[in-house]
Amino acid sequence: MKVLGSAVLTMEAFVMGFAILFASKSHSGVSLIIGGVIALLLLTAVGFLRSRAGWILGSILQIPLIGYGIVATTLYFLGTLFAGLWVTAIVIGRKGEAARAAFLSQEKPK
Asked: Hey, is 61 helix, strand or coil?
C-alpha cells in the first residue's frame, strides 16, 4: 500500500512542478507559489505514509491538485486521473496487505 501511494504522490509532485513551469509565463507569482506549496506538501505526504496522517494528507491534497486546473487547465484532467490512481492505490494496497498477511500466517511445510 505504501509503495503504490508513494509512487502516486511522487508523480503528482512532478506533474505539479511541470504545471508550475507551464504557468510561469502567463500567471502571477502567487499562483506559482501556491503550486510550489502543493508540490512540497505532496512530497511531505510521501514521508508520512507510514502513519495514517500521510494517507489523510495525501487524500486531502487531491482536491487542490485538481483545483490547480484553474491555472493550468490540463490539471483538471491529470488531477482527476491521479485522484483515481490514489483511490486505486488505497484499495489495491489494502487487498495486497491482506493477501500478504494471509500468506505469512500460513504454516510452512516441513
From this structure: coil
pTM, full prediction: 0.85
Assign 3-state DSSP to the chain and report helix, strand, coil percentages, each to 5: 85, 0, 15
In this structure, the number of other CB atoms found within 10 A of the CB of residue 6 comes to 18
pLDDT at 109: 64
Closest of 92, 91, 87, 68 to residue 79, by C-alpha = 68
The amino acid present at 98, given as its one-letter code, is: A
What is the C-alpha separation between 30 and 11, in angstroms, rounded?
A: 23
Residue with cell 505514509: 49
Q: How many angstroms separate the CA atoms of 48 and 50, rounded?
A: 5
